[in-house]
Amino acid sequence: QVDVAAMVWLFGYVDVTDTGFIMAVLSIAFNPLFWNVVARWEHKTRALSQVFGSPHAACYCLGAVILVLNCVRSHCFTEAMKSQPKLEGWDYHWTYYSGVAISAVGTLFVISSFLALGFTGTFLGDYFGILMEEKVTSFPFSVLDNPMYWGSTAIYLGWSIMHASPAGLLLTAVVAISYTIAVLYEG
Predict the structure, then answer these.
(1) Residue ranges making up the domain that contains 27
(2) What residue spans of 123-165 are helical by DSSP H?
(3) How far is residue 164's CA from residue 158's CA, in Å, rounded to a whole number?
(4) Alpha-carbon distance 76 to 24, whole Å?
(5) Are 11 and 5 in contact (CB under 8 A)?
(6) Membrane-spanning residues where (predicted)?
(7) What is the pLDDT of residue 25?
(8) Which of 27, 101, 109 lies closest to 69, judged by CA?
(9) From 9, 103, 125, 144, which residue has the greatest number of CB atoms within 10 Å?
(10) What is the pLDDT of residue 87?
(11) Can you tell me the distance from the alpha carbon of 57 to that of 50, in angstroms, rounded to the nearest whole number?
């Protein structure tokens, strides 16, 4: 038996019909779908490599598009949080700094993942035929699988806690679900 009281309580603070909230959900769901579809299409056709003249140039262009889409997603996430009510009981220094700490850990995982993989390793270079010499097993991959995804999720969770935002918490759940589906699809 599942206790849904927490979800009912959370939904009491969130207007899921708000346009900004819907845009945030759509941008969160779109990003991993987009990069996985484009990467698999490239792997099957090599069309982007042909258009850009090389797999490296195509990978860098896809990476740039993914970065822009991530900025759009973060903007939509932030705007959705700002347009929804705060949890008054969470608007304290200790919750704010807890959120900062969670975001810092997430940032550590994201940055260290990027440094371990490099640009093409991070942005789907293997689908372009750009392979690493060996599997990366150093930190943060020695601590957890998919540290870029879970680090990103932690950043959104921390951001939501810093802003005492029930909408942010719900959107963070959407981020986690989207990444879970992406991991299943990629695996």
Answers:
(1) 4-186
(2) 147-162
(3) 10
(4) 5
(5) no
(6) 20-39, 95-124, 165-185
(7) 98
(8) 27
(9) 125
(10) 86
(11) 10
* Helices (H), ranges, 3-146: 5-11, 19-45, 47-52, 55-82, 93-122
Q: What is the pLDDT of residues 76-134, one digit of tens each?
A: 999 999 999 998 887 788 899 999 999 999 999 999 999 999 999 999 999 999 999 89
Nearest to 24 by CA among 171, 180, 154: 171
The one-letter code for the residue type at 163 is H
Residue 126 identity: D
* Stretch (H or E) spanning 5: helix 5-11
Report how far residue 66's alpha carbon sits from residue 98's, in angstroms, rounded to the nearest whole number: 29
- Angle made by CA atoms 94, 83, 102, in degrees to the nearest 5: 30
How far apart are the two ends of the chain, measured CA to CA in Å? 31
* Three-class secondary structure of residue 73 per DSSP: helix
Instruction: Compute the mean pLDDT over every residue in the chain, rounded to the nearest whole number.
Output: 93
* 101/110 Cα distance (integer angstroms): 14
- Based on the structure, what is the number of domains in the chain? 1
SS3 of 3, please? coil
**Alpha-carbon Rg of the chain, whole angstroms?**
18
**Can you read off the two tokens belonging to residue 92?**
């304290």
Q: Looking at this protein, which amino acid is placed at residue 32?
A: P
Residue from 73, 21, 40, 42 nearest 179 by CA: 73
